[in-house]
Structure formats: structure tokens, C-alpha cells
Predict the structure of Prolyl oligopeptidase family protein.
Amino acid sequence: MKSVISGLAALMLTAGAASAQDDPFAWLEEVDSPRAMEWVQAQNAKARARLEGDARYQTYLAEARAIFTAKDRIPIPRLRAGGVDNLWQDEAHPHGLWRHASLSSYRSAEPQWRTLLDIDALAKAEGRNWFFHGADCLKPAETRCLVRLSDGGGDAVEIREFDAAAGRFVGGGFRFPEGKQDAEWLDADTLIVGREWTTGEVTTSGYPYVLKSVRRDGTATEVFRGEKTDVSASAIMLRGEGGTVDAVLVNRGVTFFESEYSLLTEAGPLKLPLPRKASYQAYVDGRAVFTLQEPFDGFSAGALVGLPIAEFKRNPTSAKLELIFQPNARQAITETAETKGALVVALLDEVKGAVDVWRREGGRWASKRLPLPKDASVDLVSASSKDETLFVMTEGFLSPDALWLADAGAARAETVKTLPARFDAAQHRVQQFWATSADGTKIPYFVVSRRDLKLDGATPTLMYGYGGFEVAETPAYRPELGKIWLERGGAYVLANIRGGGEFGPAWHQAALRENRQRAFDDFAAVAKDIIARKITSPRRLGIYGRSNGGVLTSVSMTQNPQLWGAVVIESPLIDMLRYHRLPAGASWIGEYGDPEVPEDRAFIARYSAYQLLKPGVDYPEPYITTNTRDDRVHPGHARKFAARLEALGAPYVYFENTFGGHANATDPELNAQRWARHYVYLTQKLMD
């Protein structure tokens, strides 16, 4: 196999073409072909020898395994049927137990769980590699559920109707074979389903664009049809008192960031008065709530607004949007939830979290802040539509996860569970600094290090960034990082670069498409800043990124090879001139641009690391890893990048898990192995 790749080296020393016909490594895009899998197995054998053969691997693996399979983890709650659901994975149940407990029992030290579905037993009985991807249960009783099962951990799922009260699948119930699909309850005997109804009836991104109303007797009636060029189409149920559907909205995803929202009526879809860059959030007090990602009708970008649905039904031309909340320039809304009578909003303020509870009082929206820790990240875990109950998780770099049970009505919150400390954080501290990017923009970043850090440039440092899709990266408690890396003297840096959502839509849009270089400049600026502060040096500085972060790390490796001693590239996008032709890739054209458009292709080519690899450059040796069953970001990106490095005679390490999907974390044992390999590589490159 090595001779095949070496023989093609000369062809790849040019700028490289984007078409599969001109790409000598295009055969690696054939996910399960014998030739490609032979290559993968050969690469895995070398990686295992290098990483798992290191004397430290077994120690790191034992530490990671103890974390991911610990019995004293917080069982993440999902409020359902007056109690709490949880998916529990451990050494005995790597695929998980879907289980249920009463709320009072859950709050106790030893909850009494009732198993609803044993995923491992189901997988064994059916000869499938099932993973649980959630359940949507019919309100108000929430005992009839649509269970989503993934064979291998990818995004494609099979949907089956499940009786949670009886703990079994419904004989003759709703069932849809595997695919990228979604189904929502309209009533006890009717679903709104989006799926591939006939062969090829999906968008160019691979998602459904035709929605049908499906009756229990199998009758299916089309209710909405988008365009094949769209990203997807999905239904949103606006449920009022008692779980009754007040209205059905359709989200037609025109691009990843542009949508048309319509109300389904007997006369056909009726468009809502919204800009294309708007995102549905919740349904509260008869208002469909949206965030605006662009200025519209007097509202600024980032605004949280509500549309009275009953009024819109009566007179679409007179119904007006209401302002609920307008974040300032250093704030961003990260997520929302709805309780019986309130809108719960999680936000960032200077990249630090808070939660506000909004409700309409006297015709106006007013808020109260939940009493939660300051300088922490917050996540809305689960909310009840039957009352004001809400679960919130808080965490920090050095503060273990704490689960809070809140009463949204009274704006009260109390801690109900806390994760035990997984590493010794007593000697560490967190600092926030600001770097100056190439265009003068100030970029915030966090440094987690020992209190007695010597500013001599010798500290092994791992730096992480993402910078895309308006995803905000916030302080998080990462036990494996603390145990394996921080306790051994390493430091950690989180770079809040543009492209993310730390400061709202403007921070994201500043690095879209032709402005993508700003994200890479920001990342390099943070690296140069920590080097200038003598926190670390290029010899001791490593970077890690996955998915869109794989664009970041692969480009950083090719643009600034002199800055890094180690580069971890996981589940990455890399061949940006062909990403749109690989499954799910077309959905991200709004983020990166369209390689089929000459003007777009010109700027994309400047950050397509696959084509930008050059002979004679002293690249840092990267660790490239992906998953065969990743049906979101195609494994061909990682494979081809490694193959081209080999053709150039450049060093690299490549490993590919054979199942687990894009998350790469579906199985706790495989996840422990994954992180053990990561940290062996980082130790070899930065600490040795």
C-alpha cells in the first residue's frame, strides 16, 4: 500500500485538483471499499504500535476509563411523565440503559431506577450495533414515545414507537426504517414526518425536504415540499395548554443559516414575518419565540422576539413581532427553554454564563435572574411544560459539574447533585487574557495553569479552538484533561476566536465565507500572545480541534507550521474544495462558501489545507483521527490528508475508529481509549 501512495506523490506536489477524477486519493472517499479499509487497517496498526505501545498508554487508559465509567457520575436528567429519564452507560452497559425514576427519588443519593430499554440487550437480540439517540414522547401523558436508534452511532436513525409505561415497543406501531429523518407527534394517531419517501428524495445535503402527515393506519399525506437545493425541512409543534397543538410551523432550511418559517394552514403554508436569518427557540404564552441573526424591521441582530400566533392566524398582515430581550455587544444568547408559563434564556456575558427567566406581565416582558454561580458556564438541561420545573448544569475549568433544580416561577434554584472532583485542582488557576488579531480585533482567551507557573516558555500547553457556526466555547470541566494533562504539569488554553457565538451573531458573521481567514488569524494571535507572555513556546505548544475545528487545526498547521509542536486533527473537514460533494457537506455552504462558484472557490482555495500541503516544508507531525461511521463529516477528509502527507514524505499518525459516529463518544470504553491515545501523542510531542 505504501508503494501505491509513494508512486502518486509527484502528482500531489502540485496545487491539486478538487474533482475526484483528478484526485489520486479519491478512492479513500469510498468509505467501506476493501482497498480503503485495507489502508485504514494498516494505518491503525502503525498508530496502535506508536501510541498504545507507549508505556504510559495503559495508565492513561485506566484513568480515562475510571472517569467515563464512574458510578458516581451525575445521571443527566430529562423530565418526562412527572419523573426523570436518563441514559446510563458503564462497563456493563456500554450502549446504555434508558431508565426512569420519580423526581423525588432522583433527588435522593440512591435513586430507584426502572429500566425502560436495555440498548445492549436489544443490540444483541437483533444483531445490530444499536445506540440510543433519544425519544420524543407525546404530551401530556408522555408515555407513548418515538425512540430513535442508530446502528453504529451515526446520524441516520430508525424510529420506533415505544410504550414507556409498559416498557416495550408497540406491536404494529409507528416504525420507520433507517435514514436521516425526523418525526413529531401531531396527536395520538398522527405524526408529521420528514424522510426519504422515494429513492433520492433528499436534499443535496442528504436531509429530507418533503413532510407528510402519517396516520396510524399508514395513510400518508404530503403537507409540505421544499426544494432539493435546500438543506432540510422540519416540522415544529407549537403546544399550548395540556400539550394540545395550537399550530404547526415548518422550518424550511434554505441554507444552514437561512430559513423560511411558515404556518401550516388548510390553504397551504403561510410565511411568517421574519428575516431569513432567524432561529426558532420556544413557544410561550401564545408567542412563537425567535432569535434574529440579522437586523430586521427595527430590531438589531441578536434580538429575542415573539410573534403572537393567534393574532397572526386572524390577520397575518397586522401581527407584529414583540421585543423580549436585546443583548448588548458583549452578550450572547446561547440557548432557551420553555416551562409552563416562562421563557428561560441562557446567555453569555463576557464569555461567562447566566440564566434569566422571562414572562409576560401586564402586556410586557420582564425577567428575573436565577441565583447561580458567577464566572461559570451554564447549560439548560431539561424543562417541564407541565409546571415551572427546570434543571440547569453549571461548571467551570476547575469547578466540577453541579446540577441545579430551579423553580422558574419563583426564580429559585438549589443544588441537587454535584460531580466529585476528578483531579486535583487546588494548585491551579484560571486567567482570562486578550490577544490582538491581525486586523486589530481583541480576542479573548482563557489559560488554565498551575498557580506557580514559571514564565520561561517551558510549559507543555494544549490550545483548543473552534470558531464556527456561532458555537460559543465556554469554560468547561473536562475531567480527562485535568487528570491526564493538568495534573502532570500541562496547561490548557481556550481561544474564543471569531466564527463562534461568544458575542452573538456579529462575532460569527465576522469570519464567514471570504472572511474565514480572520478565524485562523485570531487563533494564531492567541498562540503568539501566550508565547510572548512566555507561558509556553512553539516546541511545547500543541493544538486540538475537531469537526469544524479540524479546518482550523489543519489550516493552522499549513499556514503557521513554525508555531506548533503538536497538532491533533479529529473528525475534520479538510478538503474544502470537495467538502460540498461529500455527505452532509452541502449543508455548510452558508458557512464556508460554494466551491462551484468561481468567486467562492478562489477564497476557499486559500484555506483548503489538503491542497495547500507543499513539499519541503517542516510540518509538525499531526495526529489525525476520525470514524468510519461518521455520516456527518466524511472520513475521506482525514484519510486523504494523511495519505498526502505520506506521499510528501512528511510524518503523521493516523487512527480511525470503526464505529461511533461523529460524536466519537457513544461507547465509554472506546471513548477512554480515544483520549488515552490523544494524550499519549501530546505527551510524546510536548512533554518528552
